[in-house]
Write a structure and sequence with these properties.
The complex is a heterodimer of chains A (180) and B (427). With 180 residues, chain A is α+β, with helices and mostly antiparallel strands. Helix content of chain A is 41%, strand content 8%. Chain A has a four-stranded mixed sheet, covered by helices on one side. In chain A, strand 3 (144-146) and strand 4 (149-151) form a beta hairpin. The longest helix of chain A is centred in the N-terminal third of the chain and has 13 residues, at 16-28. With 427 residues, chain B is an alpha/beta fold. The chains are: A alpha+beta (180), B alpha/beta (427).
Chain lengths: 180, 427
């Protein structure tokens, strides 16, 4: 990092553990650029979203142009460039889920949380997304993911129970599995 | 019983998600045998098995391998675990139930192709599956089943799990390579094909999770035994995902070519009680609609192709009489609009146009003249896009329009969805 200039007095954008993860990723691949996606995951897991300063720090660590890192950060739908709610709820509404009540599930969640599709609750606890890729749980439709953990075969009561569990901070129980 | 067990025969065995449990059911005997018999003998068994890619394109695996130019190293193997086809969740099941079966299959392929680096590209949404896989890979490293000296021999291969970050297009093999190199996941122009110039500009094979998970069986039991499970044109077994309006959605492994759609739907408990079959999508969101007249077709590449569709990625979505096909089309074109990478105009603009039209049609607001533009837009896309995403964004909607034209026309100017209205607003 530059040791002078306007940003020098500020806290470094990334924690030590994140930097270590980025450096380990860089070792894994024949090209350093392959480490961009894993590095951005490490950043997002630390900060919750990708800040401009963090993108610059990743570019510097990997020896790449900032534009190369930013191009990746803006392409993939799972990277956030703004702070979202503490917990992310995603409802799959593709065909298999749509045939089994995904729209009703989304409407129920909108009512239960008091937000519309795409919104974040006032307390910042939940962001609700109803426009996502098929989440690969068509055998357990309708479903939602909360923080990338799948909950399947949901009716309104089951969805409420998940929200309650997440709110209470209780360890999340056995995650649902696809039926084989 | 049309069910057969190759991929799924040890599902649920005690501890089979871990290395010890997997070894107890004969795990890694295929890799040991592969190292004994040599790369050519492994490739010959794969050829004899008639195995075709299970990611959707059904390209013969041995042929794909044979395109690698001789004597050019390093070479790479990429395992495509970016399963994102609407209706498809079989790779997820394979990752959850038998991660070591995939690792063994990947290492067998890596040995047959003499690669030194293999990558498993897994979609970002499969967080739990990635954790399971990474744990299994660590076990495999500890037991020298991958790493610098596999099973103490001269050949070594690193196995790296690489997580995506949300992009359907990265399931397309050249977009996967760009993504793995650290770029936006956009497809490449072919030729050169990945076999000649793939990852990092080197010869590369990209194989699907299910494809590779078959290899331990093929190496141990022989390619001919695998082929004989199915028919000549559709050898082997296959894992089908059945979802939608059936009683018990799930994955079912059946003999290729010998099982019919009707039998597969029966395995999933049949259409839900009190309702009857209307239509199905046989290969995931990208494939053309089939109707009641196709229920007794075999799960056979040619038979389904002759009927104007494809088995695609092995996902069967069943729809009963309560389904509005305009609504289903709208959901699918929305999906393609969301997932279009933006590289080529026909896809980027075409999916936008399709989606706007289908929303107006489903709401009963579109006119006959507007509906009349649908075939023109789809003609401007199909076969004119840079990669199959844009082509396939037209297949379901156009095939549904051709098979159920009245349903589409009845929406024009209706002010609401007439199918839902007829159901008494029950939906």
């Amino acid at each position: 990092m530059a040791d002078s200039g306007p940003g020098a007095a500020e806290a470094p954008p990334l924690g030590r553990e994140t930097l270590a993860r980025i450096r380990r990723s860089k070792q894994l691949y024949p090209w350093a650029s392959s480490a961009i996606l894993p590095s951005l995951w490490a950043v997002q897991e630390e900060l919750g979203y990708l800040t401009p300063a963090a993108l610059l720090a990743v570019a510097e660590e990997l020896g790449l142009e900032p534009s190369e890192v930013e191009a990746v950060a803006t392409f993939y739908s799972m990277y956030f460039r703004h702070r979202a709610g503490e917990h992310l709820i995603q409802v799959c509404r593709n065909v298999s889920c749509g045939l089994r009540g995904a729209d009703e599930l989304l409407r129920h969640l909108e009512r239960a949380l008091g937000v519309e599709d795409g919104g974040t609750t006032e307390d910042g606890a939940f962001t609700l997304e109803g426009t996502v890729e098929c989440l690969g749980a068509c055998g357990g439709a309708p479903m939602m993911q909360v923080d990338r953990i799948s909950y399947e075969n949901l009716d309104a009561a089951a969805a409420d129970a998940v929200l309650e569990q997440v709110r209470s901070g209780a360890p999340r129980g056995r995650r649902s599995r696809a039926r084989a | 019983m049309p069910e057969v067990k190759v991929l799924t025969r040890h599902f649920g065995a005690p501890g089979v998600t871990g290395l010890e449990g997997y070894r107890r059911v004969g795990g890694y005997r295929g890799l040991e045998k592969a190292l004994r018999v040599g790369p050519e003998a492994v490739a010959a068994e794969v050829k004899a098995s008639g195995l075709r890619g299970r990611g959707g394109a059904a390209f013969p695996t041995a042929t794909k391998w044979s395109f690698l130019p001789q004597g050019v190293f390093p070479r790479y193997l990429c395992v495509n675990a970016d399963e994102s086809e609407p209706g498809c969740f079989k790779d997820r099941v394979l990752l959850e139930e038998m991660p070591h079966q995939l690792i063994e299959g990947a290492m067998i392929a890596a040995f047959a192709l003499q690669v030194s680096h293999a990558f498993i590209y897994i979609r970002g949404e499969y967080r739990r599956q990635r954790e399971l896989l990474e744990r299994a890979v660590r076990e495999a490293y500890s037991a020298h089943l991958c790493g610098p000296s596999v099973l103490g021999g001269e050949w070594g291969c690193e196995l790296i799990v690489h997580g995506g970050a949300g992009a359907y297009i990265c399931g397309e093999e050249t977009a996967l390579l760009d993504s793995l190199e650290g770029r936006r996941g956009q497809p490449r122009l072919k030729p050169p094909f990945p076999a000649v110039k793939g990852l990092y500009g080197q010869p590369t094979v990209v194989n699907n999770v299910e494809t590779l998970s078959n290899l331990p069986y093929i190496v141990v039991e022989g390619g001919a035994a695998y082929a004989a499970l199915g028919t000549e044109g559709s050898p082997g077994s296959r894992l089908f995902c059945v979802s939608g309006h059936v009683q018990s959605p799930g994955t079912f492994e059946v003999a290729m070519g010998k099982t019919t759609f009707r039998e597969l739907i029966e395995l999933a408990g049949g259409v839900r009680p009190g309702h009857h079959f209307k239509a199905m999508q046989p290969g995931g969101g990208s494939m053309q609609i089939l109707g009641p007249q196709h229920l007794d077709l075999a799960l056979d590449f040619k038979a389904v192709s002759d009927a104007g569709s494809s088995l695609g990625a092995g996902a069967l979505v069943v729809m009963d009489e309560t389904t509005c096909l305009v609504d289903v089309s709208m959901r699918l074109v929305d999906f393609y609009r969301h997932e279009s990478c933006g590289k080529c105009v026909p896809c980027r603009e075409g999916t936008y146009f399709e989606s706007e039209l289908m929303h107006r049609l489903e709401a009963g607001l579109a006119t006959e003249a507007e509906l009349g533009t649908l075939p023109d837009v789809c003609r401007a896309m199909d076969g004119r896009c840079f990669c199959p995403l844009g082509d396939t964004a037209t297949w379901f909607v156009m095939s549904a329009y051709r098979m159920f034209p009245e349903e589409f026309h009845s929406h024009c100017g209706a002010g609401a969805c007439p199918v839902r209205s007829a159901l008494g607003a029950a939906a």
